[in-house]
């Protein structure tokens, strides 16, 4: 049977190509993911190892190191130097610029250094620091400049702001990129790092590691000697052992990422399985006479089944091997590209292929192929010997789907949808932990989608037939194409379902992202309804003070600023007639000025001269008496009566005339800034900070926060759609495969059509319409399902947002449909050319 199987594979090589391509794409995805995961682990290991410098030993313990322990370690035999791995965070500023920086302690021994001072000197005094070039660039500073360090210390449970002027004496480099994943680091003496980070003692820094340099040849004696002065739970290990332990604790994040990507790879392999199954069903159908003849000459059912499965196994093994090579090539190419881009993390220049990265894709690809061929193999055993006596025309594939499948499909679809709706309801009510509705929603969505895919054979052909009736009147070729799509419901359903899976997931993510983007933007507009908020601060008391008009003029002149309105604020108490009260801060702004800079429409609609606009959660209503309060929270007057309106806001709002009565001495401590359309909020925020200079004015940009949210959502969407793109590509390969197999099956039929007058162009158009019907219906159904799942997911995840917006990404949906139709058209080109080139006389010959 092996020689027979190999012979059949050679004869059917063209028909197996599409299935092989599907396996190659899926296994390449798996191999590339595993190799990339190994690259991330190696990169992390190299970076962690570099943080220890060239230390001989590392002392690690669960409790913080004490000065007494360090002194004991330094006195141990064979020890040259011991440095605690203190890592502090400090706030640096120069002019109107500020940044946070990670600071390390200047090493007492060159071997313990993870950073190098490449220009200037090593910091030695309490007012000296060495910084990386990137930090100096952010501060617009240079070597030798004096910068400000701000920190806070606590005295009697009260915070006290501290300031120090320090000089940049050195420029540091991180040749091994040990601290690149943290944005870089600088150097300062130990006492300075502790003080500037707000720690009064080494114990407060909670440092649990120390690096040790020992005399030549004294590693093991020093290792034994260091045990006594350390804590009872301490471990004295080599640098490589410490790095390995750290990487193991950090590996969870990498493993989670690899697992997520492998989940997308499994989707691609599922789609590939549909393509493979389709291919083998057609092959078995076309070999009906051959299989029957084999039965006549004594072949058993088990031998026929084994022959089909062996063919699948050999195909899977060969294609998976090629897929592994493609995956290795893709990863190597990615490393070459990343090497030319500053990604901030050192990456290897070559791919290190592990046994897991080779064996797992080979095994998975082969197993998926064999499993996909099980049903066709079973069909091969049902061929009766008498079939050898029948003509070989028009082989039929598949049998009527059973009632059991229908029942399971309905149960999963309806039950899963009910679970999703219950999850949405629970999320909106907020009565349980947020993870409960999320888990229920994921489980319900997965169950319903499996039910939809399981039952696709029942309803997808009907949808294809319905759409076909809409287009069949356009031409005779379209009428024949519409009829051809439903001649084999199983194959049409499998092909459309393969595309449906990918499109559903793409549209679901796109819809969820659009809803999340819209809902978060609306929520931010309600809580922070301005693009940029300025607030004057009193550097002495820590309270607020009026913003200098010169500062406001400077900000108004910044590129990207469209408008600026100064605003007064005051603390008030509002009391209703029933005695209930509301205490809070109110902003005073003229209603007309508000429309220039405020984005909260409910507030804008409610704001008027005699109304206090309150947050939604305020427990008072009706007419209220509002009184201003001073900084000691004492009432400043008898109060004034105002009406109330609730709106989605976090503060109160009044008109200018009301503020004149509430707090006539209130000054313009705030300014609302509106940005021009298309302005980059982050860049404008930095320009505003520069324009303010040394003035004590706080700058907060909700617009920049919105931009960050949108960037995160768009980045995640791009990554997910890119990962799902492999599944969609395999599905489109399946469309081309279906058309190619149809051409092979219908050679005599196509010849008959040509003989009775159908032109080559008409034949090609018939296949084009068939391809677009199959792909278009798959995309259309996937779009509808994706919208439903996307809305349900967004409503579950963002259920606590009161005004949830369920957005429709029209542009994305249009793009999906255009790509699907174009892909169906392109998939028909080669099959159409093949059919048109075959002479009618040759095609009418019996195989």
From TrEMBL:
Segments forming domain ABC3 transporter permease C-terminal: 263-383, 723-840
Source superkingdom: Bacteria
Membrane topology classification: Multi-pass membrane protein
Subcellular location: Cell membrane
Keyword Transmembrane (UniProt): yes
Residue ranges of the TM segments: 256-285, 306-339, 351-375, 406-426, 438-460, 497-516, 716-744, 765-790, 810-830
GO cellular component terms, semicolon-separated: plasma membrane
Pfam families membership: FtsX
A molecular function GO annotation: transmembrane transporter activity
PANTHER family for the chain: ABC TRANSPORTER PERMEASE YTRF (PTHR30572:SF4), MEMBRANE COMPONENT OF TRANSPORTER-RELATED (PTHR30572)
Family, as annotated: Belongs to the ABC-4 integral membrane protein family.
Name of the protein in question: Putative ABC transport system permease protein
Organism, as annotated: Cellulomonas oligotrophica
Lineage: Bacteria, Bacillati, Actinomycetota, Actinomycetes, Micrococcales
């Amino acid at each position: 049977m092996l020689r027979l199987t190999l012979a059949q594979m050679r004869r059917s090589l063209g028909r197996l190509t599409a299935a092989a391509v599907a396996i190659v794409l899926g296994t390449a995805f798996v191999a590339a993911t595993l190799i990339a995961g190994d690259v991330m682990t190696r990169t992390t290991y190299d970076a962690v190892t570099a943080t220890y410098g060239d230390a001989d030993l590392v002392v690690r313990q669960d409790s913080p190191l004490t000065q007494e322990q360090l002194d004991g370690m330094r006195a141990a035999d064979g020890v040259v130097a011991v440095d605690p791995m203190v890592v502090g965070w400090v706030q640096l500023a120069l002019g109107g610029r500020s940044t946070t920086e990670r600071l390390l302690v200047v090493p007492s021994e060159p071997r313990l250094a993870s950073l190098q001072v490449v220009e200037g000197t090593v910091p030695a005094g309490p007012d000296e620091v060495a910084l990386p070039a990137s930090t100096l660039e952010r501060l617009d500073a240079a070597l030798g400049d004096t910068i400000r360090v701000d920190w806070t210390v606590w005295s009697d449970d009260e915070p006290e702001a501290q300031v120090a002027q320090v000089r940049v004496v050195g420029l540091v480099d991180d040749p091994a990129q040990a601290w690149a994943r943290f944005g870089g680091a600088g150097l300062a003496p130990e006492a300075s790092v502790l003080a500037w980070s707000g720690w009064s003692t080494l114990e407060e820094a909670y440092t649990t590691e120390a690096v040790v340099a020992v005399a030549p040849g004294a590693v093991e004696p020093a290792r034994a000697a260091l045990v006594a002065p350390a804590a009872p739970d301490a471990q004295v290990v080599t640098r490589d052992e410490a790095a390995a332990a750290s990487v193991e604790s950090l590996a969870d994040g990498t493993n989670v990422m690899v697992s997520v990507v492998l989940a997308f790879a499994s989707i691609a392999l599922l789609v590939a399985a549909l393509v493979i199954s389709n291919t083998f069903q057609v092959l078995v159908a076309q070999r009906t006479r051959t299989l029957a003849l084999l039965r006549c000459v004594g072949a058993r059912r088990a031998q026929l089944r084994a022959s089909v499965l062996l063919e699948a196994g050999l195909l899977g093994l060969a294609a998976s091997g090629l897929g592994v090579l493609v995956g290795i090539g893709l990863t190597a190419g990615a490393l070459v590209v990343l090497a030319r881009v500053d990604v901030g993390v050192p990456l290897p220049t070559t791919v290190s292929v592990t046994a897991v990265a080779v064996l797992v894709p080979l095994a998975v690809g082969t197993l998926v192929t064999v499993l996909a061929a099980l049903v066709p193999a079973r069909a091969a055993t049902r061929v009766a010997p008498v079939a050898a006596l029948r003509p070989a025309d028009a082989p039929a594939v598949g049998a009527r789907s059973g009632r059991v499948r229908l029942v399971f499909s309905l149960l999963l679809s309806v039950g899963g949808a009910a679970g999703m709706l219950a999850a949405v309801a629970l999320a909106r009510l907020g009565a349980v932990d947020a993870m409960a509705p999320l888990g229920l929603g994921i489980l319900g969505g997965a169950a319903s989608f499996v039910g939809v895919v399981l039952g696709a054979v029942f309803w997808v052909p009907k949808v294809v037939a319905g759409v076909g009736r809409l287009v069949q009147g356009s031409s005779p070729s379209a009428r024949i194409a519409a009829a051809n799509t439903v001649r084999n419901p199983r194959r049409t359903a499998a092909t459309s379902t393969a595309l449906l899976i990918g499109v559903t997931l793409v549209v679901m993510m796109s819809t969820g992202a659009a809803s999340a983007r819209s809902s978060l933007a609306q929520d931010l507009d309600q809580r922070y309804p301005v693009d940029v908020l300025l607030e004057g601060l009193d550097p002495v008391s820590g309270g607020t003070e009026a913003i200098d008009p010169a500062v406001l003029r400077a900000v108004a002149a910044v590129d990207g600023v469209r408008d600026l309105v100064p605003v007064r604020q005051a603390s008030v108490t509002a009391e209703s007639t029933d005695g209930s009260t509301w205490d809070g801060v109110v902003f005073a702004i003229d209603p007309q000025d508000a429309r220039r800079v405020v984005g909260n429409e409910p507030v804008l609609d409610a704001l008027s001269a005699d109304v206090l606009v309150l947050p939604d959660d305020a427990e008072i209503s009706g007419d209220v008496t509002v009184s201003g309060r001073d900084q000691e929270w004492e009432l400043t007057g008898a109060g004034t009566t105002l009406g109330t309106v609730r709106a989605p806001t976090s503060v109160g709002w009044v008109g200018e005339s009301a503020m004149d009565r509430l707090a006539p001495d209130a000054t313009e401590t705030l300014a609302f800034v509106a940005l021009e359309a298309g302005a980059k909020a982050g860049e404008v925020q930095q320009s505003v900070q520069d324009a303010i200079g040394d003035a004590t004015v706080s700058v907060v940009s909700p617009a920049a926060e919105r931009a960050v949210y949108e960037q995160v959502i768009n980045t995640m969407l791009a990554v997910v759609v890119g990962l799902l793109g492999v599944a969609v590509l395999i599905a489109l390969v399946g469309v081309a495969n279906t058309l190619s197999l149809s051409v092979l099956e219908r050679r005599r039929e196509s010849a008959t059509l040509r003989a009775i007058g159908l032109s080559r162009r008409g034949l090609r158009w018939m296949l084009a319409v068939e391809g677009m019907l199959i792909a278009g219906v798959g995309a259309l159904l996937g779009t509808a399902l994706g919208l439903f799942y996307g809305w349900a997911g967004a409503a579950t995840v963002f259920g606590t947002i009161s005004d949830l917006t369920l957005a429709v990404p029209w542009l994305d949906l249009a793009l999906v449909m255009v790509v699907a139709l174009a892909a169906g058209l392109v998939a028909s080109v080669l099959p159409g050319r093949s059919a048109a080139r075959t002479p009618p006389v040759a095609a009418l010959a019996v195989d």
